[in-house]
TrEMBL record:
Gene3D superfamilies: Mannitol-specific EII, Chain A (3.40.930.10). Pfam families: PTS_EIIA_2. PROSITE patterns: PTS_EIIA_TYPE_2. It comes from Cellulomonas phragmiteti. The keyword Ion transport does not apply. Keywords: Phosphoprotein, Phosphotransferase system, Sugar transport, Transferase, Transport. SUPFAM superfamilies: Phoshotransferase/anion transport protein. This is PTS fructose transporter subunit IIA.
Length: 153
């Protein structure tokens, strides 16, 4: 993974995201990635994410949505996070998601994508990690917590 570009920064975090369905949440997070220059074609990446979601719902227990895709439209491995004002159904068995993590990986980045996914999933099983993100007062704090807890040093 590139040491020059952090996986997540405050400008990739949306707090109090108001959306009622998965596609809307995903689109808003993709807009952050496009604005940051990490995704070259928002519509193209959205199609890749939708295709991946169609294979298997990416909702996890604990109110988590974990959409992800490898895509030719992704410039650098990135993670966008949305904190939802109200939960959105992400296909998890225990109810709607309030935290959504969109993993964007370059088409050539198999290992990066899986490493990020695995590290994030390991942390998300801990209620204390989820709570710290839900209670974080701002985008910078969310980015700092994820960087500290998930990104390999």
């Amino acid at each position: 993974m590139s040491t020059t570009t952090p996986l997540i920064t405050a400008d990739l975090v949306a707090v109090d995201l108001a959306a009622t369905e998965r596609t809307d949440v995903t689109r808003r997070l993709i807009e952050l990635l496009v604005a940051a220059g990490r995704v070259t074609d928002g519509d193209g990446f959205a199609a890749d994410v939708a295709a991946r979601e169609a294979q298997m719902a990416t909702g996890m227990p604990g109110g988590i949505g974990l959409p992800h895709a490898r895509s030719e439209h992704v410039v650098v491995p990135s993670l966008a996070v949305g904190k939802l004002a109200q939960g959105v159904d992400w296909g998890a068995p225990d109810g709607p998601a309030r935290l959504v993590f969109l993993i964007a990986a370059p088409a050539s980045g198999d290992a990066d994508h899986l490493q990020i996914l695995a590290a994030l999933a390991r942390r998300l099983v801990h209620e204390s990690f989820r709570t710290s993100l839900l209670e974080a007062p701002d985008a910078a704090t969310v980015a700092e917590i994820v960087t500290r807890e998930v990104v390999p040093s």
